[in-house]
Amino acid sequence: MNQGGSADTITTLDPNLLEVADSNQGSASSYYTPSGSEAVPWGMHRADNCSTENGILSSSSYHHNQLPEPPSRNIQDGLNVTSVSSTSSLGATNVPQEYNGFASYPNTNPYGYSNTGYAGYYNGYQHQSNQSYPPPVGAYQSTDIWKLYEWRLHSSTAAATSLQYQQHYKQWADYYSQTEVSCAPGTEKISVSTSNPGGPLPGVTTGYSASFSQPPAPFIPSWRPETSSSQLPSVQPGAVISGVHDGYWKHGAPVFQNHNASLQQPQFQKHMDSNPTYEGFQDQQKTACPQGSNIQYPAAHQVPQSYQSSLPTVPQTVTPLDSRRVSKLQIPTNPRIASNLAFGLPKTDKDSSTTSTAAKPAYISVSLPKPNDKVLSHDAADSILKPGVFPKSLRGYVERALTRCKDDTQMAACQDVMKEVITKATADGTLYTRDWDTEPLFPLPNVDVANKDGLPVSNSCFFIVEEQKKPNEEKFSGGKLEKDYSLNSLKFSLSEQRNTNKNSPRPVKRQRFAEGPDAADNGDASSDSDKEQSLTAYYSGAIALANSPEERKRRENRSKRFEKMVVAGLLKILIGMRLLSRGPVRKLRNAIYALHSAPDPATVRPEEVLEKALVMVQNSQKNYLYKCDQLKSIRQDLTVQHIRNELTVKVYETHARLAIEVGDLPEYNQCQSQLTTLYAEGIKGCHMEFSAYNLLCVILHSNNNRDLLSAMSRLSVATRKDEAVKHALAVRAAVTSGNYVLFFRLYKTAPNLNTLLMDLYVEKMRYTAVRSMSRSYRPTVPVSYIAQVLGFINVLPRSETGDEKDTDGLEECVEWLKAHGACLIADNTGEMQLDSKNSASSLYMPEPEDAVAHGDASLAVNDFFTRTSS
Amino acid sequence: MAYISMGEAHRRITEYLNRFSDAVFSQDGLSLKQLFAVSSDSPTLLSLADALNVFQDANRVIKQSDNYSQFGEIIVPLFRSLQNYRLGHLVDSYQAFEKCANAFIQDFRNWESAWALEALYVIAYEIRVLAERADRELASIGKTPEKLKGAGSFLMKVFGILAGKGQKRVGALYVTCQLFKIYFKLGTVHLCRSVIRSIETARIFDFEEFPVRDKVTYMYYTGRLEVFNENFSAADHKLSYALTHCNPHSEANIRMILKYLIPVKLSVGILPKNSLLEKYNLVEYSNVVQALKRGDLRLLRHALQEHEDGFLRSGVYLVLEKLELQVYQRLVKKIYIIQKQKDPSKAHQIKLEVIVKALKWLEMDMDVDEVECIMSILIYKNLVKGYFAHKSKVVVLSKQDPFPKLNGQNLEALSWSAGHAAYSYDYGLIHAS
């Protein structure tokens, strides 16, 4: 508390930091510890969001946003104040009520933020920045208070608590109006709520579930204001966005909301499963409440969860960034943006570079001693103090200290003291150097005194953060705050854009996530913790380096890199959302590239360019490999931009045809499966042609009757009447009955590219035919007849005149027969005959010289390259 | 729903609970099984469901007595399932029932004897039926039906419990059959293979030990699988087994078996009497049979076209299509017989153009090359004995037995009539030749 008093401007930040850190800890203490850096920005971000919400249209979405909170809040209150037995029903019924209550809300905003519009907000933002360093925090503060106020209005259901909150509100109002305020009053309240240990578990779960629906809503409003803000600092991408706002808005909203809906259930269940962390979480929530930051809590809680589960998709190297991006896919909440903000801010700003480092250790230290209140939280403590994150000896120290405690209250007090100790150690850098094994244990705190003093659990958290802040504060009070600030705001918008980028739609992943969130988060907890450890290591390193000049230089570089990424990412997302119809890329040719990360917007071609590119490929004289590459890159650009229309169909059809032409079946199969879904979506194309191909493929390649039956039964009456399909069905009949004459007749009359697919079966057909002939014909069969019946004659397209054709075909037939072990003799007229009796026993299928094991000669590699490189 | 007083509702619930605990304590599988039959629409369960809807706090009643509360994990979800079933919430009903079933098999695993097998059967049946209905509900609201798949994996678990030594193993085949039903419905027939393998190769199962009911079902499904694979002799064996052991009074089942057995029999050259087709309402096959008798290619193609959808769906289309060669054989044989009547000395030489002409009469437009090809195939497949002289375009038939009977026909015909005494009077078989 004393320290709280000594802190000045920066104090405003603290509750946020604290709260977020807490919440993370509570909910995901088992694995989440070091990613605090993420959580810290969170609160700040949230703040900025809220304020923008106030400022602009977002009234409707704002209700959404708020809606789930009050109920959860109420439940919490109910737990604390009264013992509500059926909390679940309470939560459920409260939702609508609260919702109505909120409808009137934006007008009643006492802070005047709401009606001034965004510009107003921005000004206010600037203005605040003069007073206190981190501007978003200022904004945040205001919204917090404002929310508290709202609580007061709406929490009539929990009368007892509402009183308390009103009080809070006043205090916070004061707190807000003068930036240099000690947090003492706030902390006093903390003690009140924290001293109530957890209520019935079910109640808490309802709180959670109610809050699940929250994240998407806040996200939506956040876009618009942010992008407009980006216009102010004359950054190029900003200009691009502005035109696109509305569209984006429309696009964005449904997408994310849907997404969240799907998430809701599994996450909820997950909570149910993790009871121990749960308890801890509950406590956290309570400690957080009085500071007003509890509002955010549900959201805060949610994101770590999703973050966790989404991690598996993140490449190792850029953990902090990427993880953020991926998690955004899942739950694109504003908090994310904030996290970037905090991240981006310090990094882009030379002068404020220390903030980040200062803030991070603060966060860590706060999260460390968090296991409090409960015997249960021993588990949490264990997981927090896992090896690698904190020295093992420290863990032992904590355990020693805790085991001395006789009861819960004592333990809570004990943990408080410990928190201080560890925080101090972190602050002066001795956390890793000190020998915790020999460190003397502090005297057992007198619980009564602690309570009287109102120095309970989270109180200490408060000044822990403050303590951390001191260095920054010195930095910033040092002078050109104004300038810093404007710089910050620029970066701020930038980083928001980066967010958008991170948020970019990766449909596949999102889908995957929706399908199996549980599996995802179960499986990768361990690797997460690894990352966290490395993160922690990084931060602790950063603390040490914070003031060295090299480090600053490095940061500068990094910030530049970030800016680049921001611009690129922004373009990408806009293209992704199909808002930016014309990309910067006008060139037709483009190479396929492996997508290990978000595609570079600078290389994504817009639709009309792709259309031209397709024509270019179609008319190209180059070989298949080149065309395949080009088509793949077109496909990729289409996919990246979510274009699914007739052009898409055309591209896939073109590619499929090319693949058939050169016998590249794997590629063809890919295209075919895409086409099947595209046609199923009702997009027009050469549906019939490709059902015929599909049928032929099933007939000729899979030896599976059931596949064939299902493929046939799927054909509609109309489809069956189509020429190509009819042909394919006739081919099937010829194949199943072994009617080679029919087969090769159909081969010659095949429409479209059916011939080429049939090609793949020709060898087999000829072989069985000759076998059957040699068994049934006596004494001889003229080769000319065989050549005619088995399609050697009249098939080759390159022969010119009739005579040549025949002789060519004949020669080929003779070659083929010889290759398959047939006995040929010449009769008295000199005509070649097949000696059927002798051949019957000597026929064999030649080794892969010209036919490969699977009977598909066209896939032989050498052959493939010789043909395609023409 | 008639109004039920709280007291009445309470009475019904406690009655059910009493019956449940009595059944378990006296190890009375038969009375226990009735208590699980959610979808049976039995009056007791319906009235219980009504009572549950009135009397919301059934859980408290369960908790009151130790006798009940030890089955709480089974009964609580079962009540919820009943309630939801009554209200028409089939997905919820399924989900609750799955919980109940899971709890039940936990207990079942611990019971030494197999007294509760009957109840387990009911659960296995119910979970499938409820899953099917839940899937229908899901599909109607545009969601992916996935419950049947879930039921499949649950039953796999049950199979694992039963497939061991001891008395419980006789239940394995019932569960297998339920699994077959699920897999055939889902079109994931390949999943059957692992179950079949463990039934047929594992020493712990003596196939004859299983109940007849399950054996018939098992043989029916495995027979169908053999039809898919065109493994006709195995299919014939399995389906014939199913037919002989099937309850003669369950005509629907007999019809289902015959639906696959007839094509199989046809393809080995055994034709059913028309009366049989009529009795079991399998008239879609009658034209096929006619075509085979007459060598009428046109009739066969027409019959196939007419019932194409049905044949494709049941999976016998390809089997029936292959009968074409037999029709050709019949046609050639007819020509041979006619020639023999005219001039026995030249009867074994059939000119190709005669066959072409005959086909033309059937409005089958085929040229000499094509017919030559078909003759070649007939000879190659040993449907016709002889050779083809290309120069003179003549089929030269063997003087001895030019139209050999189909493989194993005699032998199978024997087993067919012997094992099938009950039906021989109406399933009299005539041979194609």
UniProtKB/TrEMBL annotation, chain A:
<dbReference type="InterPro" id="IPR045107">
    <property type="entry name" value="SAC3/GANP/THP3"/>
</dbReference>
<feature type="region of interest" description="Disordered">
    <location>
        <begin position="54"/>
        <end position="75"/>
    </location>
</feature>
<feature type="region of interest" description="Disordered">
    <location>
        <begin position="494"/>
        <end position="532"/>
    </location>
</feature>
<dbReference type="InterPro" id="IPR005062">
    <property type="entry name" value="SAC3/GANP/THP3_conserved"/>
</dbReference>
<feature type="domain" description="PCI">
    <location>
        <begin position="664"/>
        <end position="848"/>
    </location>
</feature>
<dbReference type="InterPro" id="IPR000717">
    <property type="entry name" value="PCI_dom"/>
</dbReference>
<feature type="compositionally biased region" description="Polar residues">
    <location>
        <begin position="494"/>
        <end position="504"/>
    </location>
</feature>
<dbReference type="Pfam" id="PF03399">
    <property type="entry name" value="SAC3_GANP"/>
</dbReference>
<feature type="compositionally biased region" description="Polar residues">
    <location>
        <begin position="54"/>
        <end position="64"/>
    </location>
</feature>
<protein>
    <recommendedName>
        <fullName>PCI domain-containing protein</fullName>
    </recommendedName>
</protein>
<dbReference type="GO" id="GO:0005634">
    <property type="term" value="C:nucleus"/>
</dbReference>
From TrEMBL, chain B:
<dbReference type="GO" id="GO:0070390">
    <property type="term" value="C:transcription export complex 2"/>
</dbReference>
<dbReference type="GO" id="GO:0016973">
    <property type="term" value="P:poly(A)+ mRNA export from nucleus"/>
</dbReference>
<dbReference type="InterPro" id="IPR045114">
    <property type="entry name" value="Csn12-like"/>
</dbReference>
<dbReference type="Pfam" id="PF01399">
    <property type="entry name" value="PCI"/>
</dbReference>
<protein>
    <recommendedName>
        <fullName>PCI domain-containing protein</fullName>
    </recommendedName>
</protein>
<dbReference type="InterPro" id="IPR000717">
    <property type="entry name" value="PCI_dom"/>
</dbReference>
<dbReference type="GO" id="GO:0003690">
    <property type="term" value="F:double-stranded DNA binding"/>
</dbReference>
<dbReference type="GO" id="GO:0006368">
    <property type="term" value="P:transcription elongation by RNA polymerase II"/>
</dbReference>
<dbReference type="GO" id="GO:0003723">
    <property type="term" value="F:RNA binding"/>
</dbReference>
<dbReference type="InterPro" id="IPR036388">
    <property type="entry name" value="WH-like_DNA-bd_sf"/>
</dbReference>
<feature type="domain" description="PCI">
    <location>
        <begin position="216"/>
        <end position="402"/>
    </location>
</feature>
<dbReference type="GO" id="GO:0000973">
    <property type="term" value="P:post-transcriptional tethering of RNA polymerase II gene DNA at nuclear periphery"/>
</dbReference>
